Amino acid sequence: MSWDSRQRAMLAEMGFRLPAPPVEVPAEPAPGPVAAAPVVAPPAPLAPAPVRPPAAPVPTPAAAPVPAAAPSAVPAALAGLDLDALRAAVLDGRACGACEHRSHLFGRGALPRADWLVVTDAPTEADEAAGQLFVAEAGRLLERMVLAAGQRLAGDAPTAFVTPLVPGRAPRGRPPQAHELEAGEAQLARLAELLQPRLVLAIGPLAARRLTGLPDPLGRLRGRVHAWRGLPLVVTYAPSYLLRSPADKAGAWDDLRLALASRPA
């Protein structure tokens, strides 16, 4: 796959090192006519070897299909909400039911339509303090990752929208409870109905396991295309993890390439 100069610059900022583009070598001129080789008489035919019956083929087990996550029904309280009403319901906690989160974040990026829907784990303490997802270096890395894949989270014409699976951070950073995950996915389902994305990118283990419906570690969920509510779903690492483990940036780039190849035309 070839990349233009802009994409190469963005990949360099993300820490990827692509090989230099190949240098075209001019083709050598066609050789002149070659003298015909002398005709040699063929050897005498050998006696045919005895024919043995073919061995019975060994059946190859079929690969197990990857199950799609069961879609969560959009509650009646969310089904009729437009974007402004959904945002208000998420921010004041009405979309989360009995959640105990102190504050809620809705997301940022392309509205009212998005080509990519990027779903993250729950907001961090820094996100909560800033009132915005992916602040500081993690946010800048996420924007460079998305931009290298041809999408934009910011600027004059953003094409991707990033939102947390669970809109708020639980007290003392405890893991989200089952009813909070259910409410968060229901809110996400209504958001997807409104934004009409062509692809969902789940970053982080919580979002990956919830949207795929599989309990596997994130490393085993990567490298294949899942499905969520009829949309192609690709899983990758969270930017905060990549900042701690830069050696895995190459794997994250492979995930983004898979997402590009999986997006419907």
Automatic annotation (TrEMBL):
Superkingdom, natural source: Bacteria
Protein name: Uracil-DNA glycosylase
Organism: Roseateles hydrophilus
